[in-house]
Amino acid sequence: MKFGIIVFPGSNCDADCLHVMKNVMKQESEYIWHQESDLSAYDAIILPGGFSYGDYLRTGAIARFSPIMSAVVDYARQGGLVIGICNGFQILLEVGLLPGAMLRNRSLKFICDTVNLKVRQANTPFSNKLEEGQIIQVPIAHGEGNYYCDEKTLQELNDNKQIIFTYCGPEGEESLEYNPNGSLANIAGICNEKGNVLGMMPHPERCSEAVLGGTDGYKIFASMLNYLEEVGR
Amino acid sequence: MKELTYKEMGLLDEEYQKIIEIMGREPNYLELGMFSVMWSEHCGYKNSRPLLKNFPTEGSQVIQGPGENAGVVDIGDGQALVFKIESHNHPSAIEPYQGAATGVGGIVRDIFTMGARPIALLNSLRFAELDDARVRELFSGVVAGIAGYGNCLGIPAVGGEVYFNPAYKGNPLVNAMCVGLVNTDEIALAVANEIDSPIMIVGAKTGRDGIHGATFASEELSESSQSKRPSVQVGDPFMEKLLIEACLQLIKEDLVAGMQDLGAAGLTSSIAETASKKGLGVEVDVLQVPRREQGMTPYEVMLSESQERMLIVPRTGKEERIKEIFDKWGLDAVVIGRVSGDGMFKVYEGEELVGAVPVMELTEGCPVYVRQGQKAEYYQRCRAFDINSLPEEKPEPALRKLLASPNIASKRWVFSQYDYQVMTNTAIVPGDGDAAVLRIKDTSKGVAMTTDCNSRFVYLDPYLGGVLTVCEAARNLACVGARPLALTNCLNFGSPEKPDIYWQMEQAIKGMADAARELDTPVVSGNVSLYNETVEGAIYPTPVVGMAGLLKDIDYRCDMAFKDEGDLIVLLGELRDQLGGSEYLYVCHGIQSGAVPPVDIKNEKSLVEMLLSLNADGLCKSCHDISDGGLAVCLAESAIKGGRGFTVDFDFENKRTDGVLFSEAPERAVISINADKLKKVQELANSKGLQTQVLGQVGGKDLLFKNCGQEIIRMSLADAGQIWEEAIESLMK
């Protein structure tokens, strides 16, 4: 499979994602510069973390106007697999591929930590190698990960089973104590209605090798591969 | 802008006279400004240069020692580490967020200027105590500034230290270290070597910020320092990120003859340093320098310390390709002058020559002062302080107080604001080991790094304190399994014009040099920050060491957490009870005094070798050195990190109980091992001439200390963990 990793000038997890896809998942992978607009060669797209254009305004607010994002929107509408991680999630919200918005963390501080996530849906292109209800550990690192949407949208997310990952305690407890950023309904990751676009604040690429202390992230990328192999693009 | 006199620029009468001699006339205002910044302590090292000569700087591992933007150390396989530490103290005292942020920006530029990809940030911070609202503001501002800048760049902040002591009231210390990775055949040096080569500037536009920053950094802080806020620059990490990517591309394609960042003293310094290495000259037209403010004078342009700017001297014929690369990253590269052969630094404003100074005089002509140090009056008094005159604090409340001391408590409040995992190399994260460990991708290697300085020790006994600082850094690296390679230092002191402060410098440097020589960790780079004083006096002498080491096999790294029930807890080194200068004395008795525990550097070296052997053989399950808070805190931290209690039961040998528990004497570490490995450990220790002692076992839910079977402390693990984890956070609420 061929993965494309979008690079904005301020992306800083692009190399991490490329490393995992190439050297750990053993897939063909390459960077796609933000001024390009052709995604026809790729089986899946990764929007990596970072600070796209500095993000001095709202995170991702400028990235949505870049040439590559129009291409990503088209790609997603045609059913292409897109995963947005951290800043990538923020950009997916700004560009409207996913509903809702990000607020600053409840603490108003940047948070770097490793958190527990509960897998809420296991029959998606991004989580089919995980079990429903499984607790996984994935690092977070963000200043604006406090997900918010209106009540109606939250209802839709629930009804359509679009909430894929939620923050929780080591035993799966869901409470404010285990919610690192104040996000609505402990949301850590959601997908679109069709299920082919995922946005998540935690960083699976940071826990795909044992030397980094965990391999739960590997299963997310393995799910994508599994889906692509079974279903095709 | 009001014109300053030479005195206001920080020059002495005799220095002004020397400038007149060099010029053969009175300098004009621009020339005077150029001299004053280049001859400041920050750029010219005029008070410290003679002392710095004492440092060992050579070794088979050293590729580049002091004198370049950063030091370079061989790590095998054609790879090298590039690293340096630098201060941003005074700007941070005035404007903590931007002061700290631009400190990070400056040190990162030093690293990629050498052609290295920055892979890690560390820092060393000192503040007064957190009961003061202004201190909390400084502390949170500095941490947020480091986070805001480093996180945006995507360089993990993997380690560091933070201490709180009244000695830093009004004059906090903010030292930032950056480590880069480079292929040895791609190391770039800042040298212009061809006459007529164009000189380009790239990056941010030049404004009026930071004018005389180098001078400001070289004087004492006073009431009027707040009015020097314009001397503090404002950072733009996104711009820096673009510069990193573009400049590393230039070096990869071998397009530049010389590259230099614009740091302290701005264009003046970077141009002078680039030209002076080969004895060349330079002509520059200030009108060509892109500006963000109107009506700037040549003086302002040449002295501006606006951030995120780089000076590039292209290889002949490579300018077009250079422009293409900068275009890709949306950066403007502009030719502002050319290299000349006459050894003069000529500044033009259009056609008009507005200043001309001999380059070598700016960089090398700076007067050097060899001062006479005088032993501080407090020295004998503190050494003679009789600790036996103090009552023993009850052990359990004492341990609680120590675990709650911000100097010992978990620094999670700090490091959780830093992205410490970006780049996916961090194999031991902050707080988990005695040093940070990063894997080097595509190899089996790892590198480790740490910053250390016990400034209370250095204050009480500058020589011993200097030795101990280097020893602790080496010990920390060995504890995680890394062989210490070399060090960088940031020498933070008060005013060298005061004999007792000069004595502190002299002695501390001698101590560091002796230890660095014995431990084979040469000094490859560094920075000096003097005049760290306020009306209330000088800071504690704080010569911070940043040390880097190498793990041949990343799989044999070791953290500090206890792992399994039943593992044996073994003390490497002797039971010691010297309490001089300990955190215990301060926290429980309010005293910062006493004789600093002596250290035998050779013995410390044996310990380092022992730790390296143990880790190379995979014998240690956990490893933690004894430092702040002593043996008791060392054990408590390993227990808290591992989520497992312990029982230790040994003979206190008629020593003071508080001494045995809380002495910070060096040459010691605590490991936990599988019980069947004990014999091997003991044999190894014998062969190195080191003592070992089994203290007890990992297990249970309590921290249990016994002296010959008699219970001394019993504290629940949950209790200890909560105190230690929440101490700083609760003070910051």
Describe this structure as you would to a colleague.
Chain A has helices spanning 14-24, 67-77, 87-94, 151-159, 216-231; strands at residues 2-7, 28-33, 44-47, 81-85, 101-103, 111-119, 135-142, 146-148, 163-168, 187-191, 197-200. Chain A has a single domain (2-231), classed as Rossmann fold (3-Layer(aba) Sandwich), CATH 3.40.50.880. Chain A is of the alpha/beta class. In chain A, the strands form 2 sheets. A 9-stranded mixed beta sheet of chain A has the order 2-1-3-4-11-10-9-6-7, with helices on both faces. In chain A, strands 5-8 form a two-stranded antiparallel sheet. The mean pLDDT of chain A is 96. Chain A is built from 5 helices and 11 strands. In chain A, a hairpin with a 5-residue loop joins strand 10 and strand 11 (197-200). By secondary structure, chain B is α+β, with helices and mostly antiparallel strands. Chain B is 35% helix and 24% strand. Chain B has 25 helices and 28 strands. In chain B, strands 8-10-7-11-9-12-13 form a 7-stranded mixed beta sheet. The A-B interface holds A 9-10, 12-13, 15-16, 19-20, 23, 49-51, 53-56, 109-113, 139, 141, 143, 203, 205-206, 209, 211-213 and B 144, 147-148, 151-154, 236-239, 241-242, 245, 329-330, 415-427, 429, 439, 441-442, 554-555.
Q: Which tags fit this structure?
A:
heterodimer, A: 233 residues, alpha/beta, Rossmann fold, 9-stranded mixed sheet, two-stranded antiparallel ribbon, 5 helices, B: 733 residues, alpha+beta, 7-stranded mixed sheet, 28 strands, globular
List the helices and strands and how they pair.
The complex is a heterodimer of chains A (233) and B (733).
Chain A: E1 2-7, H1 14-24, E2 28-33, E3 44-47, H2 67-77, E4 81-85, H3 87-94, E5 101-103, E6 111-119, E7 135-142, E8 146-148, H4 151-159, E9 163-168, E10 187-191, E11 197-200, H5 216-231
Parallel strand pairs in A: 1-2, 1-3, 3-4, 4-11
Antiparallel strand pairs in A: 5-8, 6-7, 6-9, 9-10, 10-11
Chain B: H1 13-23, H2 29-38, H3 41-44, H4 49-52, E1 62-64, E2 71-76, E3 79-87, H5 89-94, H6 96-112, E4 117-127, H7 133-153, E5 157-164, E6 173-183, E7 198-203, H8 213-216, H9 237-252, E8 256-261, H10 266-276, E9 281-285, H11 298-303, E10 309-314, H12 319-328, E11 333-340, E12 344-349, E13 352-358, H13 359-363, H14 378-384, H15 395-404, H16 412-415, E14 426-428, E15 436-439, E16 446-452, H17 455-460, H18 462-480, E17 483-492, H19 499-518, E18 523-529, E19 533-534, E20 537-538, E21 542-551, E22 568-572, H20 583-589, H21 601-616, E23 622-625, H22 630-642, E24 646-650, H23 657-662, E25 669-673, H24 678-688, E26 692-698, E27 702-707, E28 710-716, H25 717-732
Parallel strand pairs in B: 4-5, 9-12, 17-18, 24-27
Antiparallel strand pairs in B: 1-2, 2-3, 3-6, 4-6, 7-10, 7-11, 8-10, 9-11, 12-13, 14-15, 15-16, 16-21, 17-21, 19-20, 22-25, 22-26, 23-25, 24-26, 27-28
